Amino acid sequence: MPIQLQIELCQLRDIEELISISKTTFSNAFKDQNNPEDFATYLNKAFSKETLSREVSHPHTSFYFVKQGDTIVGYFKLNDYKAQTDVRDKNTLELERIYVVQHYQGKGVGAWMLEQAKRLAKKEKKHYLWLGVWEKNTSAIQFYEAHGFAKFDMHPYYIGQDKQMDWLMRLDLSTL
Questions:
Q1: Is the whole-model pTM more than 0.90?
Q2: Which domains are present in the chain?
């Protein structure tokens, strides 16, 4: 990849930057495919200062900014055992969010971020990495499949009152 990237663990002092990038990247990815009222409700709750502060402070959750120099180009969120949304297995790590700023999409940043998540999971001696991805997000599903993830289940995911379905996908880290 031609651009040099690094990860930086988010702290409470970074909460305003995390709110901003979370709302921007999520909106760019999904706003047009959702009901405006449901979407606004979700956006304002999931990425509120209260919600994100609680998540950043959780001992089993880690947010990482991905930076090129001083510029944040994306972020990802990992959940260990008790913070996981579904599986809650001590041998796994959940990749709950992985978002790239629109200007940096298509430049290998997402693949680089995924490699960092795998590296962190392996460092923690996890057996597999898993995630949920909206069933209608076919480009993301193809991306994850290209990186070795396979569907193992489904679960509902709500955007406001709109019940959507996520594919649960996992990557066996012992094969890497």
A1: yes
A2: 6-175 (3.40.630.30)
